[in-house]
Amino acid sequence: MRRAGLGEGSSGHYGGSGYSVYEDENEQLQEGLRAKVGALKSLTIDIGAEVKYQNKMLEDMDSDFDSTGGLLGATIGRVKRLSRGSQTKLLCYMLLFCFFVFFVLYWYIKLR
């Protein structure tokens, strides 16, 4: 005598255990999903750490740029003071020196 749902039939149950083949397959799929979720979690943590590092680098670059801007502003102020006087030859040398320095820096950065 067979009871409905307990034999091996279309419902996929084993003998009288009540354990389904589908449940076993679901557990395997759940383990696969857990592994994938763990990998995604690790990846998002790594991305977050990289974003924080990049933001810190950008902030450092901004502060370096600000200090360079202050130095450049002071230099331009000195050049303006020189231009007020009649020292045009000295001003010309100063501008040529500035162009030379910028050219050397540009060349150095381009080769790097």
Structure in words:
With 112 residues, the chain is an all-alpha fold. It has a domain at 21-85. 79% of the residues lie in helices and 0% in strands. The chain contains two helices and no strands. It has helices at 21-84, 88-111. The longest helix has 64 residues, at 21-84. It is rod-shaped. 0% of the residues are buried.
Write the topology of this structure.
Blueprint: H1 21-84, H2 88-111
Function: Required for vesicular transport from the ER to the Golgi complex. Functions as a SNARE involved in the docking process of ER-derived vesicles with the cis-Golgi membrane.
Main location: membrane
Keywords: Coiled coil, Endoplasmic reticulum, ER-Golgi transport, Golgi apparatus, Membrane, Phosphoprotein, Protein transport, Transmembrane, Transmembrane helix, Transport
The gyration radius over C-alpha positions equals 37 Å
Helix count, per DSSP?
Answer: 2
Q: Provide the helix percentage.
A: over 70%
Q: What class, by secondary structure content? A: mainly alpha
Tell me the fraction of residues in β-strands, as a range.
under 5%
- Straight-line distance between termini: 86 Å
- Elements, N to C (H/E): HH
Main beta-sheet annotation: none
Report the strand count: 0
Residue-averaged pLDDT: 77
Query: What general outline do the C-alpha atoms trace?
Result: rod-shaped
Low-confidence runs of at least 5 consecutive residues: 1-10
Subunit structure: Interacts with SNARE complex members GOSR2, SEC22B and STX5. Interacts with LMAN1/ERGIC53. Interacts with STX17.
Domain T-SNARE coiled-coil homology: 20-82
Keywords: Coiled coil, Endoplasmic reticulum, ER-Golgi transport, Golgi apparatus, Membrane, Phosphoprotein, Protein transport, Transmembrane, Transmembrane helix, Transport
Transmembrane segments: 90-109
